[in-house]
Amino acid sequence: MNALFVITGLGIVSLLAEFGNLKRWLTAFVLVGLTAAVILAALDWNTTQRYFSDMLVFDNQALAFTALISISTILWFWLSVDYFATQTHRTDRTSLVIFAVVGSVIMASFNNMAMLFLGIEILSMSLYVLAGSRKDSLSSTEAAFKYFLMGSFATGFLLFGIALIYGATGSFHIHTIAQTIAANPAGLPTFFYAGVLLMLIGLAFKISAVPFHFWAPDVYSGSPTTVTAFMSTVVKVAAIGAFIRIFSSCFVAVESTWSLVLQVIMILTLVIPNITAVYQNNVKRMLAYSSVGHVGYILLAFVSSPTETGTIFYYLTTYSVSSLAAFSVLHLVEGNSEEITVDYFNGLFKKNSWLAVTITIALLSLAGIPPLAGFFGKYMVFAQAINHGYTSLVIVAVITSLIGVYYYFRIIIAMYFNESSAPSITLTASQKMLLFVLIALTFALGLFPDVIMTLFRA
Amino acid sequence: MTLNAFYFLSFLAIMSAIMVVLSKNPVYSVLYLIITFFCIAGHYTLMNAQFLAIVHIIVYAGAIMVLFLYVIMLLNLNKESEPHKSNVLKFAATICAGLIMLVLIGSLKGTENMLQQQPAAADIGLVKTLGKVMFTEFLLPFEITSVLLLAAMVGAVMLGKPESR
Asked: Where is the NADH:quinone oxidoreductase/Mrp antiporter transmembrane domain (chain A) (predicted)?
C-alpha cells in the first residue's frame, strides 16, 4: 500500500512539475520514486496486510507483481528517454504513464471487484491516450481509437459478469464470494456461472488471448514504439496479474466451469498468433503477435495448475526483460520512420554489433534457447503442465515455440548475412549501459531462476 | 397498482427498445432510447432504488443522450452515406445476440427461489444509506476514482493541446 501511495503521489507531482523549472528533474525524480516503491514493496514482504475494509490485500503475490511492475517501469523510462524529450507534453506523458502504473498496482493487489474495475479503467484510460500520443501520425490515432473501442467493449463484458456474480453471491469481495461458493456445494444460481464466463471473456480481452486479440496487432504497431514496449511488458504483467488473482483464488472452486473454455482459448492463443507472425514483414507487428503467443504459454501454466503462480511470475519476468531488450533495440533502429520492416535490420551486425548482439540475445530468449532466461521460463511451464498430466497440450506448445524460432531467426539472419548501405547508429553511453543491463538480466535470470522461484515457495 | 405499473413500464421499455433498432432515422432512434431509459428509471423506483433512478435519468437520459445527439448531428448521417452491411454480417450478428439472449434467459430461470432469501431493507435505495456505505466500506474505491478522473482529464488536455508552441 505504501508503494501505491508513493506511485500515486508521483503522478500528481509530475503534473505539478509544469511549474517553474522542475521539468528538467522530472525523470530523475520519477526514477527515485519508483525505486522507493520497489523498496517499500520489499519491506512489506511476508506481512500480508489488508487495507480499507479488505479493498486491497498486499500479500506476497501482490507485492511481487508490484515490484516487477515498478522495475519494468524504471527500465522502460530508461529506454524511452527521447519519448519525454518534447517540451509541450513532458509532464502530461510522465503523469499518464505513472497513473497507468497506479492502475497496474491496483490490478495486482485488489481484493474487491470494484477495485479490479477501477484498476483496469485507470490503466486503460491512460493507455488510450498514450497510444494516440503521436498526434501527427494517422496510425497512432487509429491505434488509440481502436484500443478505446475494443477496451470499452471488453469492460462492458467484465462489468456484466461482475454484476451477475454480485447478484448470485451478494458481495464484491473475492474472499466472500469464495466462501459463498464453498457454502453452497449444490451449486449457485445458473447466472453465477454465466457471470464467471463473462468475466473470463472480459479479462481475455485485456490479456489479448485469442479469439479476443484482434485489437493487439493494430494497436501495438500503430502506437509509438516506446508505448508499445510499455504495453507489452508492464500492461501485460498487470493484466495477467489481475487474471490469475481472481481465477486462482476465487473461481478456482468452480474450475469445471471455465477450465475447458480456457484450454480451448489457450490452444488457439498458442497456434494462431505464432502462425500469423510468420507472415509479418513489419517487425513491430511480428513482436505484437509473438507477445500474444506468449500469453498462450502463461495460460498453459495456469490451466495445468491454477494455484502455482510462481511459474507464471517467473515466465512474466523473463518475458518482460527480453521484450524490453528487443523493443529498446527496435526503437533505436527505427529512428523516425513509421513502419519498421525486417529489411531495416540488414547488416546490422557489421554496423552496430552492440545492437545486433542485444536483439539476438533478446530474440533467442523469447524463442526459448538455453541458457537464456526465456528457455527456463518455458521449461518450467512445460514441466508444470506435464506434472499435472497435460502432455498433449505441451506437445502443441513445443510445436508452436518451434514456429516461434523460425520467425525470430528471420530478423537474426537479416542482421548477420544481409548487406546494407544504411549509415550506422550512434549510441549514447546511457543507451549502451541500458543494453548491457538488459543482457545481463537476461543471462542472470536464466542462470539463477531460483532467486525468483523461491519467493513463491512458502 | 405496482404490478400494473410494472407491466406498463416493461411494455413501453421493450417496445421503444425495438423501435430504437427498427427506426430508419438515427435521431428517432436516440429519442426512443430516451424513452427506454426513463422506463428503466421507473423500474428502479418500483424496486425502491430512488437514488439510482435519479442518477440514471441525469447521466443516461441527460448527459449521454446529449452526447449521442451531438455526434449524430455532427456525423450528418443520411441514407446515402450509410455504410452497407452484408447479409452475412447481419446473420452473424443476429446469431450472436440470440445466443447471448438464450444464455441470459436460461441463467435467470433459476432465480425464483433466491428472491425470498434476502428481503431488502425499506431504506436501501436512499441517498443516506448509499452515502454511509460509500464513505465507510467503499471509501477507497470512492477516493481512487479521483485518480481515474484525473487521468482522463490529463489525457483529454494532452490530446487537445497543440504540439509545438
From this structure: 111-404
Q: Which of B110, B148, B165 sits opposite A118 (nearest CB)?
A: B148
Q: Is B147 an 8 Å CB contact of chain A?
A: yes
**A125 interfacial to chain B (CB closer than 8 Å):** yes
- Assess A99–B contact: CB distance below 8 Å, yes or no: yes
| A147 chain-B contacts, CB cut-off 8 A | none
Where are chain B's structural domains?
2-125, 126-165
Chain A partners within 8 Å of B165 (Cβ): 87-88
What does the H/E/C string look like for chain B? CHHHHHHHHHHHHHHHHHHHHHCCCHHHHHHHHHHHHHHHHHHHHHCCCHHHHHHHHHHHHHHHHHHHHHHHHHHCCCCCCCCCCCHHHHHHHHHHHHHHHHHHHHHHHHHHHHHCCCCCCCCCCCHHHHHHHHHCCCHHHHHHHHHHHHHHHHHHHHHHCCCCC
B116 touches A: beta carbon within 8 Å:
no
Q: What interface predicted TM-score (ipTM) does this complex get?
A: 0.91
d(Cα A291, Cα A316) in Å, to the nearest integer?
11
CB pair distance less than 8 Å for A55 and B163: no
CA nearest to B156 within chain A = A129
Question: What is the total count of domains within chain A?
Answer: 1
- Of A208-217, A315-324, A418-427, the one with minimum mean pLDDT is A418-427
CB A62 within 8 A of CB A108: yes
Q: Is B108 on the interface with A (CB under 8 A)?
A: yes
Computed on alpha carbons and rounded to an integer, the radius of gyration of chain B in Å comes to 21
In this complex, the residue of B110, B159, B161 whose CB is nearest that of residue A189 is B110
Query: Over the stretch A397-456, which tens digit does the pLDDT of each residue have?
Result: 999 999 999 999 999 999 998 888 778 888 889 999 999 999 999 999 988 888 888 888
Among A115-124, A231-240, A318-327, A412-421, the range scoring the smallest mean pLDDT is A412-421
Query: How much is the pLDDT for B80?
Result: 61
| Residue numbers in A near B155 (CB within 8 A) | 92, 96, 125-126, 128-129
What's the pLDDT at A205?
Answer: 94
| Mean local confidence (pLDDT), B14-43 | 90
Nearest 10 degrees: Cα torsion A310, A315, A321, A323 = -150
Q: Chain B residue with minimal CA distance to A115? A: B141
Find out if CATH 1.20.120.1200 is the number for domain B2-125: yes
**CB-CB under 8 Å, A189 with B114:** yes
In this predicted structure, what is the pLDDT of residue A172? 93
Instruction: Give the integer Cα–Cα distance in Å for A330 and A357.
Output: 13
Range of the domain at A246: 2-456
Kindly tell me if the per-residue pLDDT of A43 is higher than 60: yes
Please give the model's pTM, rounded to 2 decimal places: 0.92
CB distance A407 to A278 below 8 Å: yes
Q: Which residues on B lie below 8 Å from A164 (Cβ)?
A: 107
B138–chain A Cβ distance below 8 A for any pair: yes
Distance, in angstroms, between A199 CA and closest chain B CA? 14
Count of beta carbons in the 10 Å neighbourhood of residue A375:
19
In percent, how much of chain A has pLDDT > 70? 100
pLDDT tens digits along A49-108 = 888 888 999 999 999 999 999 999 999 999 998 888 877 788 899 999 999 999 999 999
